[in-house]
Amino acid sequence: VPDSWKGACEAGTNFTSSSCNKKLIGARYFYNGYEVTLGPIDTSKESKSPRDDDGHGTHTSTTAVGSVIELTSLFDYTEGNARGSHVRESSGVQGVLNWGCFSTDILASIDKAIEDAVNVMSISLGGVNVMTRLQNRGCLLVDESGVRRAHNNWSTHHSRLQNTINHILGGDFPAYASIGNGQNYSGVSLYRGSELSGKLLPLIYAANASNSTNDNLCMTGTLTPDKVRGKVVLCDRGVNPRVQKGAVVKAVGGAGMVLSNTAAKGEELVADAHLLPATSVGQKSGDAIKKYISIESDPIVTILFEGTKVGVKPSPVVAAFSSRGPNSITPNILKPDLIAPGVNILAGWSGA
């Protein structure tokens, strides 16, 4: 532990001071802004502590400084040794997201991190410009929140002093939706289980299997079992979690799922560990499959899983949700400053 370190390991719900060690050297949590606005945290549903109930903090911190784990994989994907970018470094974590993302709590956590003498601050959230807190403090800030794709793909950070980072894709987990007319549409998936083994199954669009509002989204209780049973369902992305959509299809007897992006996500693909044979495809592929369903009397499909692919070309590729241009206010300042892998990263996850 660095001699300059002034951090602490704060105890709370499902978290004790002994939870810290020489790798996790500090853990704090900030909630006053939440409680002033919305009232006391319901500790029966959320941990009032640094405990990561969501998984996001564990994933980002282990990507940065996680120790080496030998001969590991996720359902046999990416077999090998897993490690963070800087395995010899330690981390102090600041919890602000379990119960909400209030600017006052975010700023309080930043102030405390500076007092604790952090050397590098990585912030993977949005909603507040933190530059004024960090100028002349001797702390390097790397912030990914300002590169979310906005109007015209321009970055939302315009300070010369704030380092923004774009996400890139390197490896891939391809899974193809192969439809009855012979067309194959490339998608991604981390599904590991009984596969369709090339068997062509009936394909139905969720909007045609329900009488509910938002029936294209495969939300809980919207699918009609008699229309879905034994079929692969095409669900649109949005509102409810991606993996939950597959769980909804599976619960009513569906055999698989093709998850299609809409205009909101475009061609951005995120690989998920689905609960049934499923693949995620971009908007263009999704629209093509929907057109096939609309004109074919008996549409059919199978899903082909290709495992882990490295050395994908072109590579690296900037993720679809990341900005491509400078800031709209001061376009002479180019952003982002850095690009680094940030999508489809297999890293640690909270067991909370």
UniProtKB/TrEMBL annotation:
Q: Is Protease one of the keywords UniProt gives this record?
A: yes
Q: Which GO terms describe its cellular component?
A: apoplast
Which residues are in the Peptidase S8/S53 domain? 28-344
Which InterPro entries did the record assign? Answer: PA_domain, Peptidase_S8/S53_dom, Peptidase_S8/S53_dom_sf, SBT
Question: Which segments constitute the PA domain?
Answer: 202-289
Q: One MF term in GO for this entry?
A: serine-type endopeptidase activity
Specify residue ranges for compositional bias: Basic and acidic residues.
43-57
Q: Where are the residues of the annotated region Disordered? A: 41-62
Q: Name one Pfam family in it.
A: Peptidase_S8
**Chief location of this protein?**
secreted
Compartment list: Secreted, Extracellular space, Apoplast
Task: Give the family this protein belongs to, as stated in its UniProt record.
Answer: Belongs to the peptidase S8 family.
Stated name of the protein = Peptidase_S8 domain-containing protein/PA domain-containing protein
- Organism, by scientific name, is Cephalotus follicularis
Q: What is the lineage of its organism?
A: Eukaryota, Viridiplantae, Streptophyta, Embryophyta, Tracheophyta
